[in-house]
Amino acid sequence: MIPKKHRRWIIFLISCLLFTYSQFYRSSIAVISPNLIEELDLDTEDLGLISAAFFYAFAAMQIPVGLYLDRVGPRALMTVLSLVAVAGATLFAYGESAVALIVGRSLLGVGMACNLMGPLKLITTWFSPLYFATLSATFVSVGTAGNIAAATPLVWLTEWFGWRTTFLLFAISNLIIAIVFYLIARDHPDDSPVSRPSAAATVSLSVTLGGLLPLFTRRDYWLISMGTFFRYGIYASVQALWAGPFLMVTMGLSQMMTGNLLLAMSIGLIIGSPVCGWISDTMLNSRKTVIIAGLALMACILVTLAVLPGSTALLTLLALFFGFGFSSGSGQIMYAHIKERLPHEKAGAAMTGINFFTMTGGAFFLHGLGWAIKTFYPGGSLEPGVYRVAFVLFGVCLVVTGLLYSLTIDDRRALRKPMNNPTDNPH
């Protein structure tokens, strides 16, 4: 029997591992794009759709995840969906066409759909709400190790084993971790009946949707949702795909050096997420101030990258990509912000709702840019200037997003609430 104080940290760590796989899968196309183009004769629209398929499926799953997460519980839901992800990774590894890769990536999106909302739900039941922003940001930071694996390490593995064998190895290890999670995780510290669905607790779509409708009448729900749509959509499209062609085509860098810069971006996010969460929780006592500052810095970096010459020093690029990841870490606070702006009983649905917009943003900017490049630059989609224009447009979108986000409200009282139970301390 594992003591509760140990079990919650074990659950937290295994959840981080599962989220690491989600981050790896969604970001793994950027550095292997030359391999896919050469082997399967793909164009920019194909690449955009293959990468976006994960995000489309992930976003579509947020509705059923929102319906079932509170009723079925994260343990069962995360385990079942993880098995779907294993099937998707296996199909992707054996895919011989763009269609097969799209289907595989779609299954991966379905399978990873609960690996953020599920752990956030577990944090709310196993830890004090006073530490939610810090723990959720730390969770995302640790899980972002998957982005690191999708950078330089993926280049190494691809050179050693090939990209197909590499994805098959990830599928096998993903299966092992999912089984361990099911054996150890519990939905509630006491594993009480209230934490498990009773025989009468059947899921009613109409009743659940009726409970979600009040969210749609709240201004902050839409402002925060739009904020995460653009913030994460732009970050994900750069990190998961378009930074690769930008660095290799526009800046003339090698595949390995591109992986190193993507690695720097991921390290920036890993450091930036908990730092921004800590600043928000303890120093500024504010959500939107930190978020708006992060959006502004992201915009400045993208515009700077767009105007840099190809002879730019690698150290400068390293600092800019690290800064882009660090500033993007402020966006993780949006989950804490939406949680505090809505009733506690709607917290799970609200966070799942904005996660729908988060992943839809990734799909929109990945697929949309690939389509736009092929449409407006036929025959010249790999010209260096194309990606410079895209980065400027991304920067403008982030500036507008920051202006809109300034209309949200900080619920500072929620940040000052004392702990109800001293035993809730996460340490």
What is the architecture at the second tier of CATH?
Up-down Bundle
Distance between the termini: 20 Å
Percent of sequence in beta strands: under 5%
| Structure annotation, total helices | 19
The structural domain count equals: 1
Structural class: mainly alpha
Q: How would you describe this protein?
A:
This protein is an all-alpha fold. It has one domain (7-187, 216-414): MFS general substrate transporter like domains (Growth Hormone, Chain: A), CATH 1.20.1250. Helix content is 77%, strand content 0%. Helix 1 packs antiparallel against helix 6. Residues 192-204 and 415-427 have low confidence and may be disordered.
Short characterization:
With 427 residues, the protein is an all-alpha fold.
Sum up the structure in keywords.
single chain; 427 residues; mainly alpha; Growth Hormone, Chain: A; disordered C terminus
List the helices and strands and how they pair.
Elements: H1 4-27, H2 29-40, H3 44-72, H4 74-94, H5 98-111, H6 117-126, H7 132-143, H8 145-149, H9 152-161, H10 163-184, H11 205-212, H12 219-250, H13 255-283, H14 288-307, H15 314-328, H16 333-341, H17 347-376, H18 384-405, H19 412-415
Helix pairs in contact: 1-6, 1-7, 1-10, 2-12, 3-4, 3-5, 3-17, 4-5, 4-6, 4-10, 6-7, 7-13, 9-10, 9-13, 12-13, 12-16, 12-17, 12-18, 13-15, 14-15, 14-18, 16-17
